[in-house]
Every structure is written in C-alpha cells, then in structure tokens.
Amino acid sequence: MAPSRHDVLTIGQLAERSGLATSALRYYESLGLIHSARTTGNQRRYPRSTLRRIAFVRAAQQVGLSLDEVRTALARLPEDRAPTHREWNSVATTWQSRIDRQIAELELMKAKLTGCIGCGCLSLTRCGLYNAGDRAATAGAGARYLLTRDPDAGPEPDRENRPGNSPVNSNV
Length: 172
What we know:
The protein starts with 7 loop residues before the first strand and ends in a 33-residue tail after the last helix. The longest helix has 35 residues, at 85-119. The protein is built from six helices and three strands, in the order βααββαααα. By secondary structure, it is mostly helical.
C-alpha cells in the first residue's frame, strides 16, 4: 500500500520541519543519508521518518562524527521506522569510544588553555599551545612579550626583568 499524501513531506516541508536549508537536504540525499521518492513530475517526497534520520545526523555531528561515520551508522538503522532499543544501542555503543577519546582531547585542551591564561604571555603566534618551541616559556612567567624591547628578538631574559636592573636599551 502506498503512503498517503499525509505520510510524506515535500522538500520545503522537510526543510521547515527540520530547520535545514533545502540545499542541505539535497546534499544529505546525495550522500545517501536520507532518501526520497519521486513523483511523476520528478518532485522529491520524503517519508515522515526522514525527520528522525535528520535529527540523528545532527546529533551525530554535534558529537563530532563525520558524515561518512553517520552514513555507516544510518546504514545499520531502519529507514522507514524508529529504531528499536536494541538497534539504537548497537549504534550508540560504537560511538562511546569515539566520544571518550574526544572527551580526553577536550580535557587536554582545557588544561592547555588554563595554562595559557595563567602564563600571561598574550602571544598567539609564540604560545606553547600553537608553537611547541615556545620561547616565552623559557624566559619565565608573566607577560614576556609585553616586556620585550624587541618583539622580533623574543622575550627578555629573566635576569633583565629583576627589580634593580635597568634595561640595556632605553628606546622602550
């Protein structure tokens, strides 16, 4: 039995309901993430269950999965109905190790950012987060490049910044 006209959505209706542009929907379809049937006039018609697949794609992207990974996961789920608890768990467990790795990477990034904020170097081009050979770190704590007389030469050595020492070059 063919679905009734109330069980299918046009691309415009699907765009409105999903919050995606029609171009994104056509792109998802070209990747095989969603599927449509064509009318005799060659217009796309999507089953209502496509909304669930789109929600799945968007959730997967939020946790950092690529569209290739999403396609692989969707291939394991039914197209025409909601997945069962068992089907969903099968897909979700494959994501858990990926999410755990992402959490570990984010924790490391958080620690690095906290260190950067604490170091005060204020240099995105010379910071240890972006430049493993961070010269400012070897010169000591504080806003090393703000204290540098010649930014191209790098941070001032620690001994020159001690109280009582006058700068050698006075054109600061």
